[in-house]
């Protein structure tokens, strides 16, 4: 089935989302290609705006992770992290009986950042990385939006 895209504003610049077969399959601060928006993407854009306005604490959107390996399992664990809370790569590694480095690599391959909140996963002694535009600064900004910035001090 054909991919559809939408661009919506965010404090970090244009945020793009792509849907295929009634599920989000990609998102991020990089241009995505496809046909014009469909109702799912209109809903997703509304939820993203509500998140950045402080009116939404949990995305309710169908997502499909089309990346192999342990990425889908790691994404499922990330989706379970509540708004304003964090876990470490080590926490997720213990949950999946995998090395923390593999978890970090899987987080970096998250195809739907923000909606699948990889920004809520931190290193044991620091922020860890963030593959979205702006890198760690974007991660910090998202954690501040969620009131989790106190964890960073």
Describe this structure in words.
The chain is an alpha+beta fold and 153 residues long. It has two domains: 4-52, no CATH class; 71-152, Arc Repressor Mutant, subunit A. 33% of the residues lie in helices and 14% in strands. It has helices spanning 39-52, 71-79, 89-96, 100-108, 136-145; strands at residues 4-8, 15-20, 23-28, 87-88, 121-122. The strands form two sheets. It has a three-stranded antiparallel sheet, with helices on one face. Strands 4-5 form a two-stranded parallel sheet. A hairpin with a 2-residue loop joins strand 2 (15-20) and strand 3 (23-28). Helix 3 (89-96) crosses helix 4 (100-108). The longest helix is centred in the first third of the chain and has 14 residues, at 39-52. It is globular, with a radius of gyration of 15 Å. 31% of the residues are buried. Residues 73-148 form the Methylated-DNA-[protein]-cysteine S-methyltransferase DNA binding domain. Pfam families: DNA_binding_1. One of its GO terms (biological process) is methylation. GO terms for molecular function: methylated-DNA-[protein]-cysteine S-methyltransferase activity.
